Structure prediction request, 779 residues.
Amino acid sequence: MGGGGGAWLIRFVHPPSMDLVQGQNGWGVTYTSTQICALKGSTVDMNCTYRYPSRVNDHDTEVERIFWYTKLSDKEPVDLRTDSEYSGRVQYHCDKSDCTLRITDLRESDSAEYKFRFITNDPRGKYTGSPGVTLTVTDLQVQVSRSTLNPSWAELKCHSSCHLPDGSSYIWYENGQDISGQTSNSYSGSFDSTDSYSCAVKGHEKFPSPSLLGPWGVMYSSTQICALKGSSVKINSTYIYPSRINDHDIEIKETFWFTKGPDDDPVNLRTDSEYSGRVQYHCDKNDCTLTITDLRESDSAEYKFRFITNDPGGKYTGSPGVTLTVTDPPKLPSVSVSPSGEIVEGSSVTLTCSSDANPAAKYTWYKKNVNPDLQPLSKEPQIVFSSIQSSDSGEYYCTAENQLGKRTSEYIFIDVKYAPKTSSVSVSPSDDIMEGSSVTLTCSSDANPAAKYTWYKKNVNPDLQPLSKEPQLVFSSIQSSNSGEYYFTAENHLGKRTSEYIFIDVKYAPKSSSVSVSPSGEIVEGSSVTLTCSSDANPAAKYTWYKKNVNPDLQPLSKEPQLVFSSIQSSNSGEYYFTAENQLGKRTSEYIFIDVKYAPKSSSVSVSPSDEIVEGSSVTLTCSSDANPTAKYTWYKENQILLQGPEGIYHFTSISSEDRGIYHCKSENQYGENSTSLFINVQYAPKLPSLSVSSSGEIVEGSSVNLTCSSDANPAANYTWYKENEDSPKASGQIFTITDVRPEHSGNYYCEAQNRKGRHNSTLYLTVVPYLLSVGLNF
Prediction:
């Protein structure tokens, strides 16, 4: 006869499956298995995982109650822990979002659909995982197949409607003794009709099948049953009998249960006034179940099953029977909280557990989901928090127990209120923040009740005008101007907390550029000059310098933020620009003109026309100089100023021979001066020649005389001497010498001066005095 005590930890289930119960908006329950088959008397675990949105209507969602159920009362689910049929046989093991239901000492009446339900702090936040888990409870049975040729030979089979694990090993018992060597689920041989047989799964010997007795017998599912006063109980039996005796078919005439009277003349329970209206028989084939409702302590007794056949001696009672004990356990304990109002962190709080019980109950306190191994918090009627903390929030319950039974209280939720004490900020997206993208800052704080949030930007709102009063600060298109440090305050009626700063660094391509020049005044050749570029960019830009129209192949001048001229030259004048570039883009600056100032240099003078200058012609002298700013010019001739002005041009409308000479031009600005000179060679035809005779007195015959001719001419003149009335020239050259003067030399002589520009002549008269006359005259 199988007992009902102990715990069978093996679970016989259908092949695993995942049945996801989909919920809307993040609500749902997932059962590990939706179909479970287990043996009567064993223990079964039903597992689920539940989920729910972390926030609903701007409030954090918290789970306030979780439980399993099979029945409804007034359309509301009944927590299995409060169902008397499961009293002492139900445990919850819940951690975070996982919850396991364990039912021990399984009964066939436990076959049902089990559902998990959780209730949150949201008014509509109740959710049931449906469909649930269908549990089928069955037991081991010994099935008999008899031989028609040999009535003593039979095959016994250990059978269960559950799918047992492959490779299960079995134990067979004969008259309660282990039959050595029999490990399969079948056993065959010749059997004595007076022997009893049963089977069990190896490792779980405490839960054997009901015994099978020879041709006649009664087997009870359990021989010891304990039930609560006022509850219902089912007592099961299976009976066997020979199909034929003395060539007559055997038929059942009557079956009933009894507690009173001898085994050979018992009193049918249905006729016992003490059980009137409380007894039902449910018999099918060889199975018969007794159901007693509204149990009383007086129902505690040994119950036996009896069947009577059409054979004169065919009466059989299953003895010993099933012992039923009806107990009156403690009343459902109640829990009170002191103080009864709002519970604030740091205050003193007392939980008190009480129950109507006789004898007096012993109390044990637990916290839901905190003690998976059910280690108690206290074994006193009161649990005292001298300075309660937020970590003490949660659901508490107590058990009240005496020798008649054990009851578990409803959950009581302790909600410890506290000011905000932690704060954090998350940024989405979490990687680099690009200008123009959408960015959301989300704040959170550990506070109860939930905090209200206010956003600020550091050093931007001196009057502390908030940016937002929502948990999220949203930038639909963030700009570089939004870069900076942000913080928020979290506040409830118990206090206020300010978060740490979070720096928002908005990345963007270069978008503005500028150049500074040092020194900032006039730039003088030879001085040190620095061009410094800058650009508004994040990350910082890299710079490259160029000079306009100088680098056709764009060879850079520098790749530094500064372009330095240690001794700037006039050749460095021009337009400069730079490029600013980071990984997000590139920008080219405006041009900046560098104007290098310097004293006149490389001065030059020119004359027009540039070939021979002829007297009377128009002549222009031009003076030029490389200078910045433009030079002023002054023309000199022999230290006499001829002209001053910015043009540097001196003009002769009709140049004369007197203009011949050296001319100087001075180029001058505020940074210095430079001079250069030019010789002007004016060419002209010979002027009227002048003639002279070497002798100042009379020219005496036989003497020697020099006639000299000179003329102002450029180029120098060539001279030719002629005597009047003679065609042939007398001499050439500036001096005409007559060595032996004769009277016939007297006469007019003229000298012709000529060059390539012209000719001119002059005449003199030469008188030769005869020698004697000259001598006579001397007397």
